[in-house]
Amino acid sequence: MLSVKYTANGKLKLIIKKGDRTDMKILVTGAAGFIGSNFVFHMLEAHPDYDIVGLDALTYAGNLETLAPVIDEPHFKFVKADITDAATIDQLFAEEKFDIVVNFAAESHVDRSIEDPGLFLRTNILGTQVLMDASLKYGVKRFHQVGTDEVYGDLPLDRPDLFFVETMPLTASSPYSASKASADLLAMAYHRTFGLPVTISRCSNNYGPYQFPEKLIPLMIANATADKPLPVYGEGLNVRDWLYVEDHCRAIDLVIHDGRVGEVYNIGGHNEKANIEVVKIILEQLGKPESLITYVTDRKGHDQRYAIDPTKIHNELGWLPETKFEDGIRKTIQWYIDNEDWWKNIISGEYQQYYEKMYGNR
Ligand code: NAD
Ligand code: TYD
Question: Taking the model in full, what pTM does it have?
Answer without folding.
Answer: 0.94
